[in-house]
Amino acid sequence: MNTISQFKPTLLKLETIIYQLEKSLGVEHKPSPFAEFIQLNTKQENDSNPKVEQQAQPQQIKEQTEQVQKKEQTGNKTEQPQKKEQTEKKEKQPQQDKKQPEKQPQQGKKATAPAPQDFGPFTDFVSVDIRVGELKKVWKHEESDKLYCEEIDIGGEVRQIASGLQQFVPIEEMTGQVLVLVNLKPRKLAGFMSNGMVLCASDASHTKVELMRPAPGSKVGERVKIQGHENIFKDEREEVLNPKKGQWEKVAPLLKTNENLQAVFDGHLLITTQGPIISKTLANSNIS
Questions:
Q1: Pick from 254, 143, 252: nearest CA to 197
Q2: Nearest residue to 187 (alpha-carbon basis) of 178, 177, 197, 179
């Protein structure tokens, strides 16, 4: 094998590269010096071996070059859909990332409590929790001549409450069922923690005070309601009244006894399931 034969594959590759560059630049192809060597060598090989077909003719070089280009174009077409798909995924990804913060709850912020329902003139009264209680134990405060200390069952819970009734109600009468405002904020009275208030009727000069009593047979712990509007009394109350809202201060001036000794709120009768709330003798009086 002569020297040209040894380098024939390399020369053929170089001729192919030159042809590609000429075509990409729009230059007419002209055989390079390499083609002449390839052609000469091929002729010599054919002369020495007639069975060997002619190779590396300029037309063959052109055909081989076109085949290489077709393969490259086919590869590019295969890569293009993949690149397009990857691009679309990248474009969609930011949109998904933008949606995620909308789904995530904001941290560090407390949920806003729902606004209380509006029950017209009864809105403040509904927030106040007045229940039937039963006196279980009563004793005089050791350091006060005005206070009774009481243990009162309000239905599943016994509350300790202090009442300034020593000068008005004999301790013998401090028995049975009474009305208790149960969601007042607890406070100390003469050092005794009072968790509620016993409701009483009193005259204008506050010289006569009587316990308000629920209708006989009332259930301990049941809630006092407004006759004709019982349906608004569900869970519409506050566990502990907020002094800043002043619900009790708005309700108290409208709590009175009528001419029939019955408890009313702004003229509307207050009842339990067994009937009206009554005072023993005080008509048209304040309740507090």
A1: 252
A2: 197
C-alpha span between 59 and 215 (Å, rounded) = 120
Exposure letters 30-58 (e unless 16+ CB within 10 A, then b): ebbebbebbbebbeebeeeeeeeeeebeb
How far is the C-alpha of 285 from the C-alpha of 279, rounded, in Å?
Answer: 9
d(CA 218, CA 210): 19
Q: Going by C-beta distance under 8 Å and a sequence separation of 6 or more, which residues neighbour residue 125?
A: 226, 251, 254, 265
Map 16-70 to HEC letters.
HHHHHHHHHHCCCCCCCHHHHHHHHHHHHHHHHCCCCCCCCCHHHHHHHHHHHHH
Tens of pLDDT along 171-186?
999 999 999 999 999 9
**What span, in angstroms and rounded, lies between the C-alpha atoms of 207 and 209?**
7
pLDDT tens readout for residues 40-75: 655 555 555 544 444 445 555 556 556 655 655 555
